[in-house]
Amino acid sequence: MKLSKRAELIPASPIRKLADLAVAAEKKGIKIYRLNIGQPDILPPDSFFKFLHKFPKQVIPYSHSRGELNFLNQLKIYIRGFGIKNAGKKNFVATNGGSEAILWSIMAVANPGDEIIVFEPFYTNYNSLAIMAGVKLIPIRTYIENSFHLPKREEIVKKISKKTKAILIANPNNPTGTVYTSKELELLIKICQKHQLFLLSDEAYRYYSYDGHCFISSLKVEEKLIKNDAKSLIILMDSFSKNFSLCGLRLGFVFSRNLEIIQAMYKFAQARLSASGIGQQIIALLLAKDQKFFKQINKTFLSRRNILITELKKIPDISFSMPEGAFYTLIKLPVKDSEKFCRWLLTDFQDKKETIMLTPAAGFYLTPGLGKDEVRVAYVLEEAKLKRAMEILGKALAAYKK
Ligand SMILES: Cc1ncc(COP(=O)(O)O)c(C=O)c1O
């Protein structure tokens, strides 16, 4: 018996594949600072806990496949708050996290064997989700020296083939922390318009941008360039995992001005029945009451980023770029194989019975060999822990060199 091609091809997530080693280290009494996974340690707003305490004894039904009315209403207000006109309930479908939104978007625009362009390094699960859909990602390289901003038009256009169906971006970016400018977004939209491609815009980190690198939604830029909603080529994929610090709630959504896209998404939604109805009630409540949370979280992460950078500057022989948004940075290390180093951190290294967990970066690239000497750090811990984690990284690199 043989499994499918996609079952053979799908890689283990580099973010999660060292989890067993971490558990084994913890069993030996080692404390681990987890910088591998993008899960903020911040409590969600109080209204979330109040909701749980008051929750009545009741049957938990399926919810509406498109999304509950109250949730869709709040989404409409939320998206209009970003200056996006014409957003109505009909333009959304609720999803189980941003991950489902990404999978559906890929499946809605590309057939098996088709291609989607991504900028490398990219969020590693894009590759796994594309493999699940039978779609090939075509990487275009971006560089640390340029803070991973987009290459010139010619570099992008060169990679478009007859099979290309879309360009997929994360803005703000995981793993690079890059926030694209409105000029860059304009360039992508114009390329998509000319070559009849979709732009899949993942804006899961929309509230994390720093130092005047203002996040701007691709939709806002598109409104200036394409007036007719039916011709819109953008699918927005979004999530409340990071913005409300509710990764485990599993709630997100897709939005498009183009209703043909949303009709297809709605049928995908019917096939998987519904997103979490309780989750939707919670997010609707938080969107109505707790949008101030977004400002607080941005401030907290700006300060964490600054601490991270200050501490990284003390470590010799590494390089990194200043993250403009999200809560990640890629670090080039003086090691040949960063996966070996990440494993060693968990199996053979400790400083006062403590170590760190990082993500080896090769999985954020498709071009063979790239990222082999890089790791991704998610600066999701409070400041004192972050400082200690960077102290451990410095000591570990010195010990590894020996
Ligand atoms: C860029 C990006 N998009 C989407 C997701 C998926 O988020 P979720 O499925 O938790 O909403 C993540 C998770 O880390 C991410 O980094």
Descriptive account of the structure:
The mean pLDDT is 96. Strand 5 (164-170), helix 8 and strand 6 form a beta-alpha-beta unit. 40% of the residues lie in helices and 15% in strands. The relative contact order is 0.17. The strands form 3 sheets. The protein has a 7-stranded mixed β-sheet, sandwiched between helices. It has 402 residues and is of the alpha/beta class. Pyridoxal-5'-phosphate (PLP) is lined by residues 38, 97-99, 123, 170, 174, 202, 204, 239, 241, 247, 252.
Summarize this structure as a short list of keywords or feature phrases:
single chain, 402 residues, alpha/beta, 13 strands, 40% helix, globular, binds pyridoxal-5'-phosphate
Which radius of gyration do the C-alpha atoms yield?
21 Å
**What are the segments in which pLDDT stays under 50 over at least 5 consecutive residues?**
none
The rounded distance between the terminal residues' Cα atoms is: 48 Å
Count of DSSP E strands?
Answer: 13
Strand neighbour order, sheet with most strands: 2-8-7-6-5-3-4
For the largest beta-sheet, the strand count, sense and barrel status come to: 7 strands, mixed
- Report the β-strand fraction as a percent range: 5-15%
Name the helix and strand elements from N-terminus to C-terminus, one letter apiece: HHEHHEHEHEHEHEHEEHHHEEHEEEH
Shape: globular
Structural class: alpha/beta
Number of helices: 14
Give the fraction of residues assigned to helices. Answer: 25-40%
Mean pLDDT: 96
Q: Identify the bound ligands.
A: pyridoxal-5'-phosphate
